[in-house]
C-alpha cells in the first residue's frame, strides 16, 4: 500500500470522527446555555418572592391590619397568605431541583427530558399565579363592594361590579404580560436548545 492510500484511509477515519466531535461540542454549548437559563429562572423566582414578601409586609403595619379586619377580610387574607407563600416556596424548590438536574446531566436525552420538565414547571408556576390572583382579586373586590354598597340600589352594585371587572382585566393583562416577558423569553430559549438537541439525538 503506497503513501497515497494511507493518507486516504487516514482522512476517512478523521471524517468519521468529525460529526461526533461537532455533536459533542454542540451538546456542551447547549448544556451550558440551558444550565444558565434554568439558574436565572431560579434566581428570578427568589427575587419575585422577596418582592412580594416586601409588599405584603406593609399590611402588617397597624393601619393596614385594621383596614383588613374592618373590611371583613382577616380570615381570607390569612388563608390566602399561607397558600400563596407555601406554593411559591414549593415552586422555588422545584426550580432549584431542575437546575441541579440540568447542571449534572451527561446525556442528550437526559438534558432534553429535563428541559421539558423545567418548561412545564414554569408554565404551572405562571398558571398558579394567574389563578391565585383571579380568585384573590374577585373575592376581595366582591366583599369590599358588598360592604360599601350594602344599602345602595342594585344598579349601584352592578356598576361597581362592572368597574371591578374592568380593573381586574387591566391587572390581569399586566400580570400575563409580565410573566410572558420575564419567564416567556427564558422558556423560549430553552425550547430552542431542545430543538437543537433533538437534531443531535436524531443524528446519533
Can you walk through the features of this model?
The chain is mostly helical and 204 residues long. 91% of the residues lie in helices and 0% in strands. The chain has helices at residues 3-57, 62-70, 74-103, 108-148, 154-203. α1 runs parallel beside α4, α3 (74-103) runs antiparallel to α4 (108-148) and α4 packs antiparallel against α5. The two termini are 33 Å apart. The relative contact order is 0.11. The mean pLDDT is 81.
Descriptive keywords:
single chain, mainly alpha
- Helical run tally: 5
Biggest sheet features: none
Structural class: mainly alpha
Average pLDDT works out at: 81
Give the overall shape, derived from the CA principal axes: elongated
Order of helices and strands: HHHHH
As a whole number of angstroms, the C-alpha radius of gyration is 27 Å
Give a concise summary.
This protein has helices spanning 3-57, 62-70, 74-103, 108-148, 154-203. It is an all-alpha fold and 204 residues long.
Topology of helices and strands:
Blueprint (H helix, E strand, L loop, with lengths): L2 H55 L4 H9 L3 H30 L4 H41 L5 H50 L1
